[in-house]
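Figure S7 source data.
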Amino acid sequence: MEIKLAKTAGFCFGVKRAVETVYKEAEKNNETIYTFGPIIHNEQVVEDLEKNGVFVVNTVEELKALKEGTTVIVRSHGVGKEVYDLMEECGLHVVDATCPFVKKIHRIVERESNAGKRIIIIGNDKHPEVEGIKGWVNGKATVIETADEALAFTAENNEQLCIVSQTTFNYNKFQDLVEIIREKGYDVESINTICNATEERQTEAKLIAGTVDSMIVIGGSHSSNTQKLFEICKKECEDTYYIQTLDDLDMESLKGKEIVGITAGASTPNNIIEEVQKHVRIKF
Ligand code: F3S
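Tokens for the predicted FE3-S4 cluster complex:
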């Protein structure tokens, strides 16, 4: 059997970097360390980290309650300036694993808002990444996610607008929303800050699924990007399986297949992908 493993399966660059940072810090520290929010949404990884002395704090109140000198890791989504200030005030040891692509957005909105521009963030207002970006804006930031919100948006007279995007937003949708705002006649500068990692993973999955007999998609059951990957693959290859770990894979279903493709969602650790790949290879 031939196995086609997607190169883009699993962690993107920023998440990989953040997870590696946490494991490195856990090795260095004998004391309990913390991440501000879960480093990734994957139960196996969070459990494994707990065994290595890494726990999650979710709120600013919990941060305030930590002992001076405690190590806190900022995850790839990043956080607002006020959170860094607070951590400094509390004497915490901060290890910053914010993805450099997200950091770039922080620098843009800080610079442009300091220059007097009104910042518009295209994205989901409740997403932690957007929360963090808002926290670098000097003045008010507006978050727009839908065409209705873009249509309803009004700027004040002579206001200059700077539009950025959440890194995982859909490019075409971003362009459409910018266009709606631009058509209102405002002075608009739009900066495309979308990261290609998600799109590249989807494009590769589609290509592979189109050439195999069966396709395996690995990822958490609540992972929306894995769900999306599964839908994309299923359209190309009827025989597509969604599994969380090797235990979910029904080997019988792969019997007699000549080519099998494997991809995985953004929060699937490499060891799970490798385990599935090795197992399929050994079996057939
Ligand atoms: Fe990942 Fe960073 Fe892009 S976290 S999705 S590489 S913005």
